[in-house]
Design goal:
The structure holds two protein chains of two kinds.
Chain A: H1 2-14, H2 19-32, H3 34-57, H4 70-73, H5 80-87, H6 91-109, H7 111-121, H8 126-137, H9 144-155, H10 161-168, H11 180-207, H12 212-220, H13 225-250, H14 257-263, H15 269-272, H16 275-285, H17 289-316
Helix pairs in contact in A: 5-17, 6-11, 7-11, 8-11, 9-14, 11-13, 13-17, 16-17
Chain B: H1 6-37, H2 41-44, H3 59-66, H4 68-100, H5 107-119, H6 124-133, H7 140-144, H8 151-162, H9 166-174, H10 179-190, H11 192-208, H12 211-216, H13 225-240, H14 247-250, H15 256-292
Helix pairs in contact in B: 1-15, 3-15, 4-8, 4-11, 4-13, 8-15, 11-15, 13-15
The chains are: A mainly alpha, B mainly alpha.
Protein name (chain A): ABC transporter permease subunit
Family (chain A): Belongs to the binding-protein-dependent transport system permease family.
Domain ABC transmembrane type-1 (chain A): 95-310
């Protein structure tokens, strides 16, 4: 008996990593953690149904989707939907609208939170700083429906406060939301207004990591506030800025569906119709499911290429990228 | 510590002035809407509203609160918000807890499955067709399920769970507790802050959700509040412009001008109420999210 046990332990220690024992350890671990898998299961099933099935549904961009046959049975048509899409006379215009609106939002919306974060960081009165932050973050949590309501209330040609001021100075009232001239500016400015405060959070967090001694040393050397921001704070948060920039470039075709949808009207389609609103009108309202999905796929592919390129450029220039 | 130089004093002064101007810019629109909602509807239509209400009346609020379409949309939104928040928070927690255990076999793979949903999604039409093919059109499920769990929230919770000391669990294990009892009896009670934060984020999403109604609901009795609000704003805008679309406000017997403003306020107040709680933890959440994203 004693001998046998010794033999067994010896045997096991000689071959600790055979294939058998590896699988049995694995199975033992799985059985040990059975309740963890049980906790994981509903979440995974949920993602498979509500996130991965739609991902698979993207194949209808390469099919002629027929509502009676469903996603699986509809016939394949290759790139026909894409050809149809590019032949659509308005599509180039819609693509350019998407790009221009989103580019303008990036141009103004990207630096705004950085500048505000730099200035907030200089506030020494903590109660005032906290209050300002609270007010600045708030619009992020309000719906675009509420915002669109406020915007129309302000810009209304009949009783809006903006036109009231114009009339007070003897000007002619302007119907801003039906004017091709003003519509994009309204989209850009209201987007920046809503999100700039929320955008400061990430930069403010990065700024707390800067060693205060550096500012003190700079001051002794005679650096003024702006020089301190430029030479100490900005370099310190540069990695975060670059990562945020890569992410925003990946979103360059996200021109803000809900905002445009809630504010636009046929009078400004020429300047306001974006890929997402086009997908909604053609896809959901007119039931051109395959064509609209192709437009969505086209958008995703461009986004993927852009984020990849941006990451590459950032890494080539010696900085840390996303991956 | 060197005293403030003249230049720094000027900078600070300018900075405070700038911040105060920014605050006014951020607050004025809401103030304007609030004052508009409290104005006397007949007087306010002529303009002249800037800082204080023109006349004073709460007729717009009483009219909305008695409107049956408003009440039914509020009911729908309360149901979807409560159910969505409960389902979403609970299953976000269970998923995140399992993934937070580095000993879990296949954990890295499962985490990637979650992460990938942040990088790529099917898009509008495939999501719509899914709900259609699942037979959920025109049901509350279509308003609740598609947005219940998202990867961002899972990762925020996961990083919180990783911060809970392992010793607590090991002690419970020695006492014979299994992972389920540990999760329900020890981890969840310790995680109230993160559950509250994620729960509030989810709740705000459901409260603000408008597009699910547009996509999935035909029956007006099942509209969410934001869809009702949107419809009301469109109607009143048309009414103000002198067109048709007066139906909604005509039956309320108050001017569209004040109705619109009062309804905006009503849709905003619940957010303002939860906002202080929301603020307590969201900075941390936003940071984790942007690193992961």
């Amino acid at each position: 008996m004693e001998q046998r046990r010794q033999k067994l332990t010896l045997h096991a220690s000689l071959q600790p990593k055979t294939k058998m024992s590896k699988t049995s350890i694995f199975m033992k671990d799985v059985v040990r953690d059975k309740y963890l898998y049980l906790l994981l299961l509903p979440g995974l099933l949920y993602l498979l149904v509500f996130k991965y099935l739609p991902m698979y549904g993207v194949v209808i961009a390469f099919k002629d989707y027929n509502i009676l046959m469903g996603v699986m049975e509809s016939p394949w048509v290759g790139f026909e939907q894409f050809q149809r899409l590019f032949r659509t006379p308005d599509f180039m215009q819609i693509f350019m609208n998407t790009f221009i609106i989103s580019f303008l939002k990036l141009l103004f919306g990207f630096p705004a939170p950085i500048i505000i974060a730099l200035l907030l960081n200089e506030l020494r009165n903590m109660a005032f700083k906290r209050f300002t932050q609270s007010v600045l973050y708030l619009p992020h949590f309000l719906s675009w429906v509420v915002f669109a309501g406020i915007i129309t209330a302000f810009l209304n040609p009949v009783d809006g406060v903006v036109n009231f001021i114009i009339k007070a100075f003897d000007g002619t009232p302007i119907d801003f939301l039906t004017s091709k001239e003003y519509f994009r500016s309204i989209l850009v400015s209201t987007e920046v207004y809503k999100e700039m405060g929320w955008g400061t959070i990430i930069y403010l967090a990065a700024m707390t990591g800067v060693n205060p001694d550096m500012y003190e040393a700079a001051r002794i050397d005679g650096a003024n506030k702006l020089q301190q921001m430029w030479h100490i704070t900005l370099p310190a948060i540069r990695p975060v800025i670059l990562i945020m920039l890569i992410l925003s470039l990946g979103n360059i075709l996200e021109a803000g569906f809900l905002q445009v949808y809630l504010l636009y009207n046929p009078l400004v389609y020429d300047v306001a119709d974006i890929i997402d609103t086009y997908v909604y009108r053609r896809g959901i309202q007119e039931a051109n499911y395959s064509l609209a999905t192709a437009a969505g796929v086209f958008k995703s592919v461009i986004a993927l290429v852009l984020i990849y390129t941006a990451n590459k450029i950032v890494k080539k220039s010696g900085n840390e990228g996303l991956w | 510590m060197v005293g403030l130089s003249k230049g720094e004093k000027i900078f600070n002064y300018c900075n405070y002035v700038f911040m105060v101007l920014l605050l006014i810019l951020m607050l004025y629109p809401f103030w304007y809407i609030l004052m508009g909602s409290l104005s006397d509807s007949k007087l306010a239509v002529g303009g002249g509203l800037f800082l204080i209400p023109v006349g004073f009346s709460v007729d717009a609020y009483t009219a909305i609160l008695q409107n049956s379409a408003f009440l039914s949309s509020l009911g729908t939104t309360l149901i979807t918000t409560i159910a969505g928040t409960a389902i979403g928070t609970f299953f976000t927690a269970t998923t995140a807890y399992a993934l937070s255990k580095s000993r879990l076999r296949g954990g890295v793979f499962f985490a990637f499955i979650v992460l990938f949903t942040m990088l790529f999604n099917g898009g509008l039409v495939p999501n719509y067709l899914l709900i259609k093919e699942l037979g959920m059109m025109n049901s509350l499920w279509a308003l609740i399920l598609p947005n219940a769990i998202n990867a961002f929230n899972v990762f925020v919770m996961m990083s919180f769970f990783r911060g809970i000391p392992n010793e607590l669990e090991e002690a419970a294990k020695i006492d014979g507790a299994n992972d389920l009892t540990i999760f329900f009896r020890i981890v969840l009670p310790l995680s109230k802050p993160v559950l509250a934060t994620i729960g509030l984020f989810i709740a705000v999403f459901y409260w603000n959700d408008f597009f699910s109604t547009i996509l999935y609901i035909n029956d007006k009795d099942m509209w969410q509040l934001q869809a009702y609000l949107r419809n009301l704003i469109e109607n009143t805008s048309m009414a103000i412009r002198g067109g048709s679309g007066t139906a909604v406000t005509a039956q309320m017997n108050v001017s569209p001008f004040t109705i619109r403003m009062a309804s905006i306020i009503i849709a905003t107040v619940p957010i303002l109420i939860v906002y202080p709680f929301l603020q307590k933890h969201f900075a941390k959440g936003a940071m984790i999210g942007s690193i992961k994203g």
